[in-house]
Write the structure tokens for this entry.
Amino acid sequence: MKRAIVIIIDGVGIGELPDAAQYGDQNSNTLGNTARAVKGAHLPNLQTLGMGKIATVSGLDDSVTAIGNYGKLAEKSPGKDSTTGHWELAGLILEQPFPTYPNGFPKEVIAEFTKRTGYEILGNLPASGTEIIKELGEEHLRSGKLIVYTSADSVFQIAAHGDVVPLETLYDICQQAREMLTGKHAVARVIARPFEGTCAADFKRTKYRKDFSLEPFGPTLHLNLKEAGWQTVGIGKINDLYALAGIQKSVYTKTNPEGMQAVLDELDDTKSGFIMANLVDFDMLYGHRNDIPGFYNALQAFDKWLPALLDKLSGEDMLMITADHGNDPTMPSTDHSREYVPLLIYGPKLKQDQNIGTRETFADLQATIAEYFEIKSTGNGTSFLPQIV
């Protein structure tokens, strides 16, 4: 009755990687800088698991005897987007980064998009999602043209008002874009960005964002688990980021509270196998908007929820809490940041207060879970299971 649960607190990095300056992310430290900005973080349950022992975090005690095990993961793949981070966590390391478009998409890409979908576009530049709908939303309402934009990450984002483009139509347009964007223009994600409101002053994005990712180009933890006969469950945007590859049960959630409740519900339903959940609000609502109080409040809400999660764990359960990249709300950028990510591991039968150190790749998580389930590894990463059992 083995069960592993991985919860990705999206965008919660814990300090710049050695190559952060190459990405313009020097001094980024999502958790550390946020804690300093609020004059010390009060996160007692994360502290008990060992978060304050991974790195200096104002407000967290580094002298506690942690009930969990702790360390941090370095990203080996180039890039700092969600797909890259999630794929590496599942044991797939990129050799080349996904393409990015600092000057917007080439004319031939936009022409093909218009031909396939029948829609003309506005924008076609790197932009903040909240700002571009303020800037172009009213023109979109008048003209019916789609707002297309990108960011520092490998994304093709399509924003549309629900009164102009119904949600399912927007999803269909994104699927067409996903099928179109191949070869040298194979962006990591096409993202539907629906919004609502009557004018620029009150436009806001809805919770019905949807990501359309590339299919993984090689074996992943999910595929290997499924092949070996284990149940695999994806909660939140996990399903989209892996293009459903190897995921047998999908639970779609749009917010952190929905995702956290879905995890508890799934622990009642899935008695053995692998559950992976993504909690997106840290990144989507707060990191990308430089909302420090919002980011901290989301961390506190997650921290307050943790006892309910720990109470659900028993027997051979192994819980891992980590992230996919940083998204420091204290920095001038509104994009992801190239950071280490924290890793907390807890289980009723695991050792406690073990420092697994700084790992060379996110893929160490995959290697550890593969050894735990006694299945083949993707070939990337080194298991730390012997340190914690």
